[in-house]
Amino acid sequence: MAISPSIRLLGAAALAAALLPAHALAADIAKGREKADQVCAACHGKDGNTPIDPTYPRLAGQSADYLFQSLVDYKNESRKNAIMGGQAKSLTRAEMADLAAFYASLPGQLKYKPK
Ligand code: HEC
After folding, report:
1. pLDDT tens digit string along 63-94?
2. Where is the Cytochrome c domain (predicted)?
3. Which residue CA neighbors atom 41 of ligand 1 most closely?
């Protein structure tokens, strides 16, 4: 029996939804800001641009996908860093998505400066 095109389409939609990163579905910038103010601002600065140490990265304006993936990687230790590993451990995927969306929404200061 042939599979009807509409059933096939449904299957494709379900697959696409399963493969989408969490933050592509629903990220809450306001919640991200709240968490960031409480926790992350201590090191990355309230504006995501004024880290307390020059070796700490600026998060403002970076891509949400990259920020989200970095947090996932710190949590599962595929990206190893003692400080951020500890920070990411307690974050849920939804919190990571909110935080990534918040920092991505801020004006970035990342510039390439040719010599
Ligand atoms: C105690 C200081 C500290 C706190 C608090 C902290 N971070 Fe970090 N963060 C760092 C350091 C140091 C690095 C660089 C780690 C590395 O080299 O991988 C970093 C890196 C990152 C990166 C990778 C950025 C890049 O450019 O690759 C992300 C994303 C990030 N932090 C998000 C957060 C979020 C979200 C929070 C709050 C839940 C947070 N950080 C709290 C110190 C901190």
Report:
1. 999 999 999 999 999 999 999 999 999 999 99
2. 27-107
3. 40
Residue 104 Cβ contacting ligand 1 at under 6 Å:
no
CATH number where 42 lies: 1.10.760.10
- Does residue 71 have its Cβ closer than 6 Å to ligand 1? yes
Neighbours of 5 (CB within 10 A): 8
Q: Is 56 helix (H, G, I), strand (E, B) or coil?
A: coil
Please state the domain count of the chain: 1
Residue 35 lies in a domain: yes
* Residue 65 is assigned to a structural domain of this protein: yes
The tens digit of pLDDT for each residue in 30-63 reads 999 999 999 999 999 999 999 999 999 999 999 9
Task: Tell me the residue range of the domain where 64 lies.
Answer: 25-105
The separation between CA 84 and the C-alpha centre of its own chain, rounded to angstroms, equals: 13
pTM above 0.70, yes or no: yes
pLDDT of amino acid 113: 72
Q: Look at residue 58 and tell me if it is in a domain.
A: yes
